[in-house]
UniProtKB/TrEMBL annotation:
<keyword id="KW-0238">DNA-binding</keyword>
<dbReference type="Pfam" id="PF03466">
    <property type="entry name" value="LysR_substrate"/>
</dbReference>
<keyword id="KW-0804">Transcription</keyword>
<dbReference type="InterPro" id="IPR000847">
    <property type="entry name" value="LysR_HTH_N"/>
</dbReference>
<protein>
    <submittedName>
        <fullName>LysR family transcriptional regulator</fullName>
    </submittedName>
</protein>
<feature type="domain" description="HTH lysR-type">
    <location>
        <begin position="1"/>
        <end position="60"/>
    </location>
</feature>
<dbReference type="InterPro" id="IPR037424">
    <property type="entry name" value="NocR_PBP2"/>
</dbReference>
<dbReference type="InterPro" id="IPR036390">
    <property type="entry name" value="WH_DNA-bd_sf"/>
</dbReference>
<dbReference type="GO" id="GO:0003700">
    <property type="term" value="F:DNA-binding transcription factor activity"/>
</dbReference>
<dbReference type="InterPro" id="IPR005119">
    <property type="entry name" value="LysR_subst-bd"/>
</dbReference>
<comment type="similarity">
    <text>Belongs to the LysR transcriptional regulatory family.</text>
</comment>
<keyword id="KW-0805">Transcription regulation</keyword>
<dbReference type="InterPro" id="IPR036388">
    <property type="entry name" value="WH-like_DNA-bd_sf"/>
</dbReference>
<feature type="compositionally biased region" description="Low complexity">
    <location>
        <begin position="298"/>
        <end position="311"/>
    </location>
</feature>
<dbReference type="GO" id="GO:0043565">
    <property type="term" value="F:sequence-specific DNA binding"/>
</dbReference>
<dbReference type="GO" id="GO:0010628">
    <property type="term" value="P:positive regulation of gene expression"/>
</dbReference>
<feature type="region of interest" description="Disordered">
    <location>
        <begin position="297"/>
        <end position="320"/>
    </location>
</feature>
């Protein structure tokens, strides 16, 4: 006869309850039913499982040895059920994110850390790559989500505009320009300036803007990383223009940021592999990212993203 889980369940119940009647009550079945199951198990294993001593049901030595193996089996089953519960509530799985430096240095770590605190069984990856290298990682499905400057035009990628991200001028709180509501190129005449941007196009666009205004831009330092530029501002090396997400982090550390005019658009986008379904974990993370974006930019409840095959940048001057 084949031993089933029901046979082991009956044996375990009698052993734990100390009798057939109480064991049957534990399982919610009749006493004859549990007796029949235990009898069938005895026939299958070839030895007696319980005996009567002074009116009590007592497991035999063989039953005690068998019980150890049964408990291991039930413990394994409990682990399986717990794992299934974790999957059902999205507490396990993996989340693979690749991002351009601007968002990976200042914005994403905070969101990801808070997201992971509620999901201790999830394993996450946050890798930093240049925008021009990101499409390869997404189309090869080595990552679930990518953050890059738009436009990205490559088959196999679905893009969404995450935020146009208007540039801001970052300076020390005691700087004379901090009293202004917004900063224009003319305000930065002969002011030590730190050029930053994810690529040469950003720096070139800023230079053209100063040239169009007839203002000499006193570039002291150039760096491709907005976070490095803000650190240099902290050290008194000058002022810089960066995205609002990087600026937000350094405002918390004592710098101030003012809108820059005319507007500079970073055009941050989100990339997904076109031929892979987005998991619930991915959707939940994107919801958390969008909420944090709107909180930082003061746009709570104002959705900004739009899905498309390949996103187009804003019709205004795009510098990303």
């Amino acid at each position: 006869m084949r031993i089933t889980h029901r046979h082991l369940e009956a044996f375990r119940a009698v052993h734990l309850a100390g009798g057939f009647t109480k064991g049957a009550q534990l399982l919610g079945i009749s006493q004859p039913s549990i007796s029949r199951l235990v009898q069938q198990l005895q026939q299958a294993v070839g030895f007696t499982l319980f005996t009567r001593i002074d009116g009590r049901t007592v497991p035999t030595a063989e039953a005690l040895a068998l019980h150890q193996g049964v408990e291991r089996s039930f413990h394994g089953l409990d682990e399986v059920m717990q794992h299934a519960d974790n999957i059902r509530h999205h507490r396990v799985g993996s989340l693979r994110i690749v991002s351009m430096p601007a968002l990976a240095h200042a914005f994403l770590p905070g969101v990801l850390a808070r997201f992971m605190k509620e999901r201790p069984g999830v394993v996450a990856t946050l890798q930093i790559e240049r925008t021009d290298a990101l499409p390869h990682w997404i189309t090869s499905q080595q990552f679930d989500i990518g953050f890059a400057n738009l436009p990205v035009d490559k088959p196999g990628i679905q893009t969404e505009l995450f935020d146009e991200a208007e540039g801001v001028c970052v300076m020390p709180a005691a700087h004379s320009l901090s009293a202004k509501k917004f900063i224009e190129p003319k305000d930065l005449r002969n002011v030590p300036f730190i050029h930053s941007g994810p690529n040469g196009r950003m720096q070139a666009s800023i230079r053209h803007m100063f040239e169009d205004a007839g203002v000499h831009c006193d570039v002291q330092i150039e760096t491709p990383l907005a976070a490095v530029a803000c650190r240099l501002v902290e050290e008194g090396a000058g002022v810089t223009i960066v995205d609002p997400f990087t600026a937000h982090l350094y405002e918390r550390q004592g710098l101030v940021a003012r809108p820059f005019r005319p507007e500079l658009k970073f055009n941050f986008g989100v990339l997904f592999p076109s031929y892979a379904a987005r998991s619930t974990l991915v959707r939940q993370f994107m919801s958390a990212v969008s909420e944090e974006r709107d909180r930082i930019l003061g746009r709570a409840g104002a959705p900004r993203s739009r899905a498309r095959g390949t996103a187009k940048p804003s019709s205004r001057k795009a510098v990303a």
